[in-house]
Amino acid sequence: MNLRDCMEAIANQEFDTAQAGIHHGMKVLEPKLREVHEIVREMAAMYWGVLDKQAMHGHQSTFDQMLWDYFTLTQRGENYKGSANHRDLKTYEVVQQFYAGKFGSEYGRKVHLHQALNGKWPLADRDSELFQKGMKAYLNQKEKRARAKKAS
């Protein structure tokens, strides 16, 4: 065998070994991915169901950002700190610590309770009269602020 044939045989063997390893890994990983997908789907449905009651829900959510960051973590490894935007990855723990530090650990609960107990419109169903009335007031307020800003 000449050198070229030897190198070709080695390269083919390396490729076959890598391909077999990936094939095996995917067979193990696929059922787990399906399981994780179901959990994520359930969480997303619950999360967006709650967000759908809020007045402004069209922005990219923290939930979406955290999911994307987890995917990045799996690709780049544990100590990856972000690239062009130089931000830390927003894992669930990091987000919880941020809000606890900024508003106190019970902030979300306090806001939700306040809105629920005071019949606040953002928590009402979007078709309800209360929500429509609240949304109209919100948009009017926005318009008044814009006019006041132009006048100054």
Secondary-structure topology with pairs:
Blueprint: H1 3-51, H2 62-76, H3 92-103, H4 107-117, H5 129-151
Characterise this structure.
The N and C termini lie far apart (87 Å). The chain is elongated and about 85 Å long. The longest helix has 49 residues, at 3-51. Helix content is 72%, strand content 0%. By secondary structure, it is mainly alpha-helical. It has a domain at 1-57. The model has no long low-confidence stretch (mean pLDDT 78).
Explain briefly what this protein structure is.
This protein is mostly helical and 152 residues long.
**Distance between the terminal alpha carbons, to the nearest Å?**
87 Å
Going by helix content, strand content and strand pairing, the class is: mainly alpha
Low-confidence runs: none
Strand content: under 5%
Largest sheet: none
Rg, alpha carbons? 25 Å
Q: How many helix segments?
A: 5
**Helical proportion?**
over 70%
Report the order of strands and helices: HHHHH
Apparent shape = elongated
Number of beta strands: 0
